[in-house]
């Protein structure tokens, strides 16, 4: 009777509580207000565990904004960003082997897609490599060319003046040093860059597919 009662209690508990959920099924954006595609992609990353337990970043090129997530899909911070001068979603062939002076305005593209990201260095600072072959990284805002007014561009409410770089993703110094670097220094992660010309489904079809 005792064993029968115990089994009945276990069965009732399973009926009431249901099966255990392995992890979160959606990203936690807190009070941030992302675009629909940003939220859709972040939820899929968390639900599918596409980042494999690593931190991840989503770059919304149309909104000129970067969203950085901890390993559990919780947003650690978001910020305006500066992006490639030219619109487009594919880096020109061999762009990573060119000198900056040889990269014309039409080729200054921030490519879209999923990228395995890792910390590294350029000639002066640590950076987060996004696409090493194309020489694309996410880094502190570059202010070497005063005529570009990059700090001013970051501070304006408009997104129309956020296109200025050679393709790299520029974020405020404080955002890089307090959010990006602490997330990615312990382990590599993933950077997802949303397209601006190609359809979302072309690059992230799995994120809009119905769950199995």
TrEMBL record:
Q: What does the UniProt keyword field contain?
A: Signal
The region annotated as signal peptide is: 1-22
Q: Which named protein is this?
A: L,D-transpeptidase
- Please tell me the species this chain comes from: Sphingomonas hylomeconis
* Lineage, uppermost ranks: Bacteria, Pseudomonadati, Pseudomonadota, Alphaproteobacteria, Sphingomonadales
